[in-house]
Structure prediction request, 434 residues.
Amino acid sequence: MSTTALDRSLVQRLVRNALSARLGNGHAPKLVVNVSARHCHVTPADLERLFGKGHQLTPYKWLYQDGFFAAEELVTIIGPRHRMIPNLRILGPCRDHSQVELAFTDAIMLGLDVPVRRSGDHRDSPGCYLLGPAGMIELPRGVIRHERHVHMGPSDADHYGVKNGDRLNLRIKSSCSAMFEDLLCRVAPATKLEVHLDTDEGNACDLAHATHYELFK
Amino acid sequence: MSTTALDRSLVQRLVRNALSARLGNGHAPKLVVNVSARHCHVTPADLERLFGKGHQLTPYKWLYQDGFFAAEELVTIIGPRHRMIPNLRILGPCRDHSQVELAFTDAIMLGLDVPVRRSGDHRDSPGCYLLGPAGMIELPRGVIRHERHVHMGPSDADHYGVKNGDRLNLRIKSSCSAMFEDLLCRVAPATKLEVHLDTDEGNACDLAHATHYELFK
Prediction:
């Protein structure tokens, strides 16, 4: 008997989600879904070790969020299987911690078992070697898979009924439709609404040919 | 007014899906979810061109489905960006068409724009070069992303209420939970229940550390 009873809150949630997905479209803020390919962030000190004393990052391409850029500077990452990935791009500006963000496909190829972490959380993460034109550095830790997340401003947070640190789901309609669950909401002033997936996620759902996105609780 | 009305069939479907997912667990046949890494199939004639006259495939590792195996034989695939992937494994037994199955991450690296296709459907698919120890062959077409699918026997099909060619959804619970939609059901006698994802999909949802799978309409 109890196995056939659907609990009321589940039905309510299903209906609420379906309603909000249907009603939200007309009023929703513009949702952008971008893929972050593998990249790294470096401290000013690590940048000097890799590129020489006094070196500054040169913007190569501005990103969707104001003030952030893909830099001209590229490094090579070397992992424990004696394999490497060249042309790993540095994102600017410099940060107070150096960090490498890989998709699992990249990490497995390099022989690294990387945890899923938010930026700056390097618990139990492996390290690697980074090679630049002026030198090689060893990061003792900080190679992670950056967990899927959505940047948003305060009014976007109001629209979705979330606060910083909450979670939302993302459905992508394409020839390989998928729903990614539990995207971390990162709410900050002067931020545009933008989902960041990694290349495994973007390729799994054929994001490049998506016909519809939907962000919901 | 019409925008606030949820249509009854949608509610019924949502409730039915939730119920069937909840009730199915106790009686469900054993569900196995495996990742197919990039690989190829070859005809006997192409096998001879790659490995020499009279060559036969040698089983290296038996697959979950009876009679199928990963072969000892490896080839190198060469794409239009003058990039190559070595150690592409042939799956046996030989088939009546040669075909390469790549994840999008692989295809993009090689410079190939591959369509999502079921096995043997090579419409609008690119070709490639395959290099073996006895020779190189050019496939004029047949490089595809194999669409996500689930193999099943007739009793599994009865359990899920599907027939050959129908679609099911797969939810995977992990540190990167996701739902993959529209898995093609491939029903055949003497077949074990097994989902095949590719490496992009398996890595996107961290299948290696999944705690729960669920297959539902």
About this structure: The radius of gyration of chain B is 20 Å.
